[in-house]
Amino acid sequence: MGTRIKIVGARASYPHLVNPRAVQAGDTPKYGCAFILQKGNPAIAEILQADAAEKGARWGANVPPTAKSVPMYDGDMNPKYNTIPDNHGAMILNCSSKDAVPIIDTTGSTPMDPASIYAGCYVNAFVDVYSYDAGMSKGCAFGLVAIQFVQNGDRLDGRPDATTLFDAIEGAPAPIAPGIQPAAPQAAPVAPDPVQPAANPYAQPAPVTPAYQAPPVGVPVAPAPVAPQPAGVPPF
What we know:
Number of strands: 7
Number of helices: 1
Largest sheet: 7 strands, mixed
Strand content: 25-35%
Order of helices and strands: EEHEEEEE
Distance between the termini: 140 Å
CATH architecture of one domain: Beta Barrel
Shape: elongated
Radius of gyration: 47 Å
């Protein structure tokens, strides 16, 4: 059947969300994360109710005595977890998935790099409580559906925050955000060639005046014509 539960205000622990991992030799590699949930968180009661409902839906009143409950452990009582101070006063949930787990940022809509979930950050999550019956192995387990990053927290794995280790390098250029390439230098603009007016197909060629040529030497030149004089006008 499967019961989906929303977990709010948990702390991530032992995340392996980038690559799947086999817990023991021969196991199917899975993605996973443990959640540290403070006692009194309403999700704990919802998980216990879902565990009982899933067992009842599969086996009715004849739940096998060997059927395991969901992997949720008391951080104060369980000897595997109570040696870690951060687990005190909390329940620890071990969740896994065969498929890669979506990681969402605080907006609820933008995906994040799975590596951004580290041991100690605060998260919300959706998990499925489901029953299984694989011969000798029976019970209920958590299926990890999705994780939402909420805020940073003190790391539980002892790794320091790198931003607290280094000083700024004097004279270094400003950092460029990942995925953004620096702009290439732009060449100086080149003025376009002047546009020549289109030829007029109807234009007539201009008349050409022939060049003056002197007559050859020795060739008689005809006298200029003399205009006739009117009758009765004495000549000059």
